[in-house]
Design brief:
This protein is an alpha+beta fold and 134 residues long. The protein has helices at 41-52, 57-60, 95-104; strands spanning 2-6, 18-19, 28-31, 66-76, 82-87, 112-114, 117-131. Strands 1, 2, 3, 4, 5, 6 and 7 form a 7-stranded mixed β-sheet that branches. A hairpin with a 2-residue loop joins strand 6 (112-114) and strand 7.
Length: 134
């Protein structure tokens, strides 16, 4: 039996502009006033992930009974496009690839807001695969 647990982690904002590049059109924020969001909010995002992730991928690829947390980082640009989707964790057994696949196919998002304007911003999504004897 395999179960997928989707968790949200909200990082505290210090109300300072945190970005990876100087103030220009290509800046990518790490902390913003309003995070980029999936249309319909967190519950719609959770539903999308639960419906589209294949939880059996770990078992199909020989993962032992355990709990595996996959972390995927991506950027939501000013137009709501998902770019630079990549895994940050390495558990193996195809779980990271499955999480990246599903997140890449999530469609348009609502962009992050900083100082009243839409900006590019990073997001991280942890996804836990729980593999149990069944």
């Amino acid at each position: 039996m395999t179960e997928v647990i989707i968790t949200e982690k909200k990082e505290k904002s210090n109300n300072q502009d945190s970005k990876t590049k100087p103030d220009n059109e290509s800046e990518i924020f790490t902390k913003v006033e309003i995070d980029a969001s999936y249309p319909g909010g967190p519950s719609a995002w959770r539903t999308f992930l639960e419906r589209n992730l294949k939880p059996e991928v770990g078992v199909d690829n020989g993962a032992a009974w355990s709990v595996y947390t996959v972390i995927v980082q991506f950027i939501v640009d000013k137009e709501g496009n998902m770019i630079d989707v990549k895994r940050l964790s390495i558990n193996g057994h195809g779980m990271e690839q499955e999480a990246v696949r599903v997140i890449k196919n999530s469609g348009k998002w609502k962009p992050a807001i900083q100082n009243g304007r839409e900006v590019k911003a990073y997001r991280r999504q942890p996804i836990t695969f729980q593999i149990q004897e069944g």
